[in-house]
Design goal:
Layout: H1 9-16, H2 22-35, H3 46-51, E1 59-61, H4 66-75, E2 83-85, H5 98-107, E3 115-118, H6 121-129, E4 133-137, E5 151-153, E6 159-163, E7 169-173
Parallel strand pairs: 1-2, 3-4, 4-5
Antiparallel strand pairs: 6-7
Helix pairs in contact: 1-2
Length: 174
């Protein structure tokens, strides 16, 4: 199911099993995922990276549902951001640019001023189609699969955020 990561479950089911009731299947998958905590861990560096970005200047865009996203963020000790775009909030999931464009709009920034951190080719395609810069992280896919990103990293700890005093953030990748 290489096509599934980074894509809304409803779209995967509609594509791969069109004979099933996709909405019912998504509800069942979600119910299982929400209660499954085995092996679920925060990506190393995620808590520190999020803590380094001023509140209101970051968001989460996920192909998961709102229930799953908020549950996993809280489980990992990460704050639920003011801007959280989930599978429930868009008509077109990744790789369509709608999820990221909606995120930029709600953050109140131009898409070209956004930096997206993505671990899936569908997400990279989505963000790039929306006119955003993308850093791919090799947590799920090998670097070759993320080659359409502007940069590819292995660890979130290589990303450093600093404020320049004028309300703008600078991103350095080391």
């Amino acid at each position: 199911m290489a096509i599934a990561h980074g894509v809304r479950a409803i779209e995967v089911i509609q594509r791969e099993a069109p004979h099933l009731d996709a909405a019912a299947e998504v509800r069942e998958i979600e119910a299982r995922e929400v209660t499954d905590r085995e092996g679920v861990v925060a990506m190393p560096g995620a808590v520190a990276l999020v803590a380094s970005i001023p509140e209101g200047q970051w968001g989460v865009v996920t192909s998961g549902t709102r229930l799953l996203a908020t549950g996993r963020l809280r489980l990992m000790g990460l704050p639920v951001p003011k801007v959280l775009i989930t599978a429930d909030d868009v008509a077109n999931g990744k790789p369509h640019p709608e999820p990221y464009l909606k995120g930029a709009e709600l953050l109140g920034v131009k898409p070209g001023d956004c930096l997206v951190i993505e671990d899936a080719p569908a997400g990279i395609q989505s963000a790039r189609a929306g006119g955003m810069k993308v850093v791919g992280i090799t947590s799920t896919y090998a670097a070759e699969a993320l080659a359409h990103a502007d940069a590819v990293i292995e660890k979130l700890a290589t990303i450093h955020i600093t404020a320049n005093g004028a309300g703008k953030l600078a991103v350095n990748i080391r």
